[in-house]
Design goal:
Radius of gyration: 46 Å
Shape: extended
Strand content: under 5%
Number of strands: 2
Largest sheet: 2 strands, antiparallel
Length: about 1400
Amino acid sequence: MGDDFRLQEQCQSLQDTASYAISNEHDIRSMDSAEITALLEDAVEQVAESSDSITNTFVFDVYRSLLKYADALQGTAMNKLLDSVTSGFLVELEATMRDLDNGDPELYGTHRTPLEMYAFLLQWFVSAAEKVKSRNDDDAPAAPASRSRRGRGGKVVNARVAAKKDTQWTWFNQIPSTLALISKVLRLKTHRIWTTTPDRDAFINCLTRPAYHISESEVYMKSNDIKLGVYKVICLAVKHHGHGFGAQISIMQCLQYYEHLSEPMAEALTVLAKEFDHNQLAEEILREIAGKNFNGQDTKGPRAFSRFLVRLAELSPRLVMKQISLLLAHLDSESYPMRMALIEIIGCLIREIAMSDEEEQEAREKRLNSLFDLLTERYLDLSSYVRAKVITTLAKLCDLPVKFPKQRLTITEMTVGALEDKGSSVRRHAIALLTKLILTHPYGLMHGGLLKLEEWEERYQEICKELEAVDMKEMEKPATEKEREDGEKQSDSEDEDEDEEDEDEQFDASENDDNSEADEAITSSPMRAARKRMRPSRTSTVPLYESSEDGDAMEVEGAAPGEDMEGVEGEAGDENVEGDEGFYEEDENTTPLNSDAPTPLRTPRTPYKTPRKSMATRTPRTIPKSAFATAKKDRKKKKSKKKARKSQLDISALTDEQVALAALESSQILNLKLRKRYYAEALNFIRQIEGAMEIIGQLLGSTNKAEVLESIEFFRVAHEYQFIGAESGIKKMIHLIWSKDNSSTSEDGKELKGIRSRLLECYRNLYFDPLPDMEPKQQVNRISKNMIELTYDATLAELTSLEELMRTMMDDDQIHGDVIGKLWQVYSSDKQLPRQQRRGAIIILGMLALAKRNVVTDRVDTLLKIGLGPCGRADLLLARYTCVALQRLNGSAKKVKGSLLDKTLRLEMDNAIFRKLQDTVLFPTRSKEWFGMAEQAINTIYALGEHPDVMCNDLIKNLTRRVFSTRDKSEQAERPKSPEAMDEDPAPENADAEVISRAQSAHSSASGDRGDAFELSQLLFVVGHVAIKQIVYLELVEREWKRQKDEKEKAEKSASGNSPRHAKDGEELEQVAGNAEDEIGERIAAVRESELLYGPNSLLALFGPMIIHICGSPHKYKNKTLRTAAILAFSKLLCVSSQFCDQHHRLLFKILETSKDPNIRSNVVIALGDVAVCFSNIIDENSNELYKGLSDHNLVVKKNTLMVLTHLILNGMIKVKGQLGEMAKCLEDPERRIADLAKLFFTELSTKDNAIYNNLPDVISHLSVGEHAVDEETFQSTMKYIFSFIEKEKQAENIVEKLCYRFRLSDEPRQWRDIAFCLSLLPFKSERSVKKLIEGLPFYQDKLHEEIVFARFSEILVKARANKSANKPDSELKEFEGILEEHKRQGEEDQALEKRAEGKKAAARKRATRKTTKRKVRGKDDDSD
């Protein structure tokens, strides 16, 4: 058998195991386990005696038979089989190696056949073992073919055999040893045994095939031992046995068909290159991949190859770098995974080049520039995945110690542009990259790490002044020195000019210097000049932006003499060299070098180690220490010898000294210029980041959760680094407190934290977390100060969101009691504190009391003493917020709808709180802040009082007496002056004077006026607000009566013993006579309707006619404050009674139409919304008037009108009657806030049933024709947005029919174009839509001559044909296209004919006119004759 065995032929035959012929085949399936064991043991013994026995035909056929029917073997048999083959192979291998060492060709030639046979059996065993394993995994072992005599026991035996196979034999554990054996075999010198290449290749392929076969299993490749074994087999075969081409084919197939092998194959090639010093295979594979074309539709193949390339670039960047020129062809590949792979590869290459020192600086610089150019070009890639990958790759590069200052500004600029990308993932990664750019910025070397724009501008101005001073000094030099330094000075001046040009062009990065890595950071002409002068004595260079591993600071230009360092670090000297290190390591004991700079709220936390040396120790080109030493010694010599040299002149010493001083001055100038460039680059970076703030602020409102989270993190980091624009972002993000947190995952599979929880964490991090190494008392002061400052200049919306944030934090016990105590201390301090500070304290305390009312319950006396005492009278805003805090005594429990429970606190009316509130309201003042304070005071009375109406009754009477009591002019003049009023407020004196003069002029101009307009305004304001609060109070009274009745009924039921008959009688009585609750409701409604404003004993009824008179007489009552207060009061009275509203609501519409004051118009719009909520039927009749506010020229009025209408329409308060077109106009409003509100309205309206569909014809008519029509461009953009909400097929079909019919009624080409455009916006997905369009042909066939109309119908045809519906009417569409073309041609001919006819008519008219004229002339001539 040994002589007849041909390995290659046997391997080919083995491809089909079933038809594989064995000369002495044993029928293993018909044998029982004992027979199989005996057969195997016989063969094993023979092989054990001599490994050459494998050449025995009987033995070899036994092994082959067993492997052919391996699925019928037991686990023990498989074990014995593997052990026998591997041990025999090993013995044969050792014998072969011994004979090879002896060098006898005849001896080692005899080993060829046994080795081939063992290799063949081992290869077969690997594939057979896989089959056994797969069958065992499926629990379906093959049963013996003929053992029916076992009967029932057969199944039991088979089950036992299967169990034995599963438990006793696991191929997984045998694989590493098998691969190790193959590796040993591959150490043979095969070229001596197999003299011909085909034979040797057949043997090597037979050995490597098991390794490839094993690698195809993803489970196996997760084992590190197996993976390394496979790598070793492949590497040895390639390195020593010429398996390169075979391995190339196999690896390419693995990449194409087995996605899990992408990274392992890259690792195998890396091992081959690094441990076996064989790069050729990897290079060939890279060249082959570079030549492949990937289809854009294919995703699996490109993804596998891209992962392979990326992994190889990470492990062996130098290997990939050699082939990068070929691989770059895939940057234009249709497949975006390949483009993404190339982006990552470029990132790996940049990292490799930047971190290695093998090449010269100039060559490295050139390669880096070209690679960065490739990256930045891909910012414009068509695929958002590729654009996002560019940004993430650059973010990884930011973590490197090398800061790439040349490219950093370009990257920042491109990334800021990417913030407006359409892809949300691109925007998200762009925000993350900007955050990373801030954290890793290289501008913290001299002045800490803060990036406050104002400070850097100051530094830049200072350095410019220093340079100007140096230039002036140079110009003032004596003539002899000028002549001596003429050549140097000329080159310096030229270089300075070049430097200035570079600064104007933002330091063009294309300029390269010789061999300094600092040149990568700063390229300046003076550096080149200095380098030319000092090249002979240069010893070393230090990069500007890279950290040095040497612990000692290196010497720089001008650093040796102590006084010369002042230009760099002031008077810091060497002590502060490590100042930056302390800053970045959050060491509170060290301060940044710029001690004047304000300390940040928190030390910036950076994920990287900032360069530890200051800028002073990092100048790009160091002047040799010897130069400084010489200069210093010479200067000392000069001072010491000055007295001794009386008449002698040491020319050589003077020359040496001048040379040294010139070098020193040159280094100082160079240092200044480098610092100027450093500051200019920093300013450029800061301005770029500041410019991105507005866009990122808008992204805080994104619907994409990941974007919002990245925006929050960006503003947190920017705030820590003291960017000016970060403050507005921090304020804006507080509105995210209303977000509903729900868990979600990002695109990369990471779980995202909730927006609300991330916001709380951010605010806690910025304002509430204690700083290390700070005393507890200082911590409390700092946190309290931060909380108070959050209220400064805050809008109402910001205060509302801040209130929710504080309430949430208080609920979670995140605010310490000491902080609350400090806030009370600030509020009640006897010192003269800034007003904002005291106000902020009570605002925060009121917010905290929402969560826990005990914050204010224990300090009511303090509130009355401070807020409603002298401080409150002097600062009415303080009094206002004190009233808000007092309202928190009731807590914040929300009323449950339908519940009769009332947990509010009610106090007797003789309580000191109400007395103080009344005194505060009645205290004479002329500040407009009084109105806000009075509103909150009345709210507090109604919130806490047992009988608030009684107290408000007295309040109105007192104010009435003050207004209408007679007093002389001197009393009027002196009255506003109060000993306590506004004595601490710097502004009110002027404001009061202005108000007084305005009030006096108002009532002096009106003849017969005896009262004060401001006091009358106060009275009317209180009357209006009391009226509206009285309605709320009546509802509370109604609820209380119902509660008492409910309790009484429960008590009666329990007393009567719950008699069923009694209960039934009661129910019947209620059905006949009506429910008692209904009576209570009717009684309260009657009080509100007829008693409050019409009752004989009603105090408010007295003021109704007066308010109407003032509002209706604008020419008589011209005082602005009075009119505002009167109209506000009138609006509130309209909400009280439907009778009053019905009689007088037209006056409100008249005011809206005629008033010239935008504030009054804005108030009226809001008031009309409130009235519509109360009495919708009254306002609904006049809703047309309300829509007029949408065309108001004032932005606030317009915005308020839109918001009110949105609320009323969406909540069904008013019906839309064709006015939706006015709302649609707002979609294209130039003011973005208006457009966004309009879009929000239509988005919400689309959720209502058919609301947009029902009103669509009216909207089209409103915007297309008539006085309200808009231009065509606006019409198209508006309709494009509205039609996006037409999604139902049935709606689209009906709209087609309606629009076609509309053609018949239109005469103007503009209308035809608009209707055709609307038709083109419909999807035409259904067959019915197309048929309705064709059926409507008679209505528009005579309009097709209009070019744009025909173009729209052509678009519709394209859209209909693109539809993939099975019922697509292709033949009808083709016929329809022909009809359209025909009618277009016919229409054009008709138009041409009509024009010709018109032309002939015009010519005829001209001729007739001429004839008439001639006749008249002749007639005149005849008459004259």
